[in-house]
Design goal:
alpha+beta; five-stranded antiparallel β-sheet
Length: 165
């Protein structure tokens, strides 16, 4: 496993829609392993392939306390979402030093290709659900701050630019 370099905002690849995965290959499995290594080296509970410069619909999530529930996903899509919303403090290693409270459905049902190449449907709740939704946003070229009001988004990006200097 290799730790991968994280893109830094405003790299245009962070705004690109990732391509679907046609099949689970050894290259995809290696990418998942590398992404887990990268995720473990940073503070965070998930990582999407575009964050490391790979424009494929591949993501990993592990929101467990012991970091022992690795979820490897390809082509994830939300099938159903709870009407109940939760607020979570979200951030991105691609835009270090800033974070914001983001409101997302408390639970989601997601369909994705797993490491065996089979489509599975899985329900996620709480922090795990927030992280899965956050990663799906990345795969669609969206950042967490896109879910903020224009005023809050502009303030967050101004603060991030100051920190980058």
């Amino acid at each position: 496993m290799t730790q991968r370099a994280l893109l830094q905002w405003p790299d245009p690849r962070l705004r690109a829609r990732a391509a679907p995965v046609e099949e689970i290959t050894d290259e995809i499995r290696t990418l998942w392993d590398d992404m887990i290594e990268t995720m473990d080296a940073m503070p965070g509970v998930g990582l999407a392939a575009p964050q490391v410069g790979v424009l494929l619909q591949v993501a990993v999530v592990d929101a467990s306390d012991k970091r022992d529930r690795r979820i490897r996903m390809a082509n994830p899509e939300v099938l159903d979402a709870s009407a109940v919303m939760n607020d979570h403090e979200e951030a991105s290693p691609n835009l270090p030093g800033v974070s914001a409270k983001v409101s997302r459905p408390r639970g989601v049902a997601v369909r994705f290709l797993d490491e065996t190449g089979m489509y599975v449907r899985r329900d996620f709740v709480g922090l795990e659900a927030a992280s899965v939704q956050h990663q799906i946003d990345h795969l669609q070229g969206r950042m967490y701050f896109d879910r903020l009001s224009k005023v809050k988004r502009d303030m967050l990006l101004r603060k991030a630019r100051k920190l980058q200097r």
